[in-house]
Amino acid sequence: MRDRFGALLSISACLLLLAVLVWPYAVKSTYAINTYYRHGVLNPLLAGVLALAILVTFLAVRENYVSAELGAGIVLVLGVSAFLASLVWTLTARVDVFRAPGWALPAQRYILVGVAALIVFGAGWNVLTSDIVSVRSPRSPR
To answer: Are the CB atoms for 11 and 125 separated by under 8 Å?
Structure first.
């Protein structure tokens, strides 16, 4: 179970990231949300596309199209990219595009960054447990 924790965390976080991106469309108009997402250096939907690519990578590893080590590296790179895309959007998007009642929609950008950070954490855990990077100290020569 310890070896699969990182993969399970990343998969769950990818699904949650997609839900966080799609949720505003249920409470506001499509035009308003597209305008909100468009006001930033990067569109946060890029993070959603990268989350989908991460899910496809996990499926490719599961079906033995890609080795576990290569898949772990790909997921780590895509996870960091999704995190940076959501962080750049969070820091550069305008908050006054539309007024939203309550706390959930204004806090959505910070929730998105937190969920993207979970993807990176899970991907890093996956890399550490797949023996790509050794965290053990080397044996001293005798």
So the answer is: no
Amino acid identity for residue 95 in this structure: V
CB atoms near residue 52 (< 10 Å): 15
pLDDT in tens, 71-102: 999 999 999 999 999 999 999 987 776 666 66
Look at residue 56 and give its three-state secondary structure.
helix
Residue 107 and residue 103: Cα distance in Å, rounded?
Answer: 6
Q: What share of the chain is helix, strand, coil (3-state, %, to 5)?
A: 70, 0, 30
- Alpha-helical runs (H) found in 30-67: 30-38, 45-62
Write the CA distances from 21 to 25, 35, 106, integer angstroms.
Answer: 8, 14, 13
The DSSP code for 68 is: H
Structure tokens at 74: 């790909």
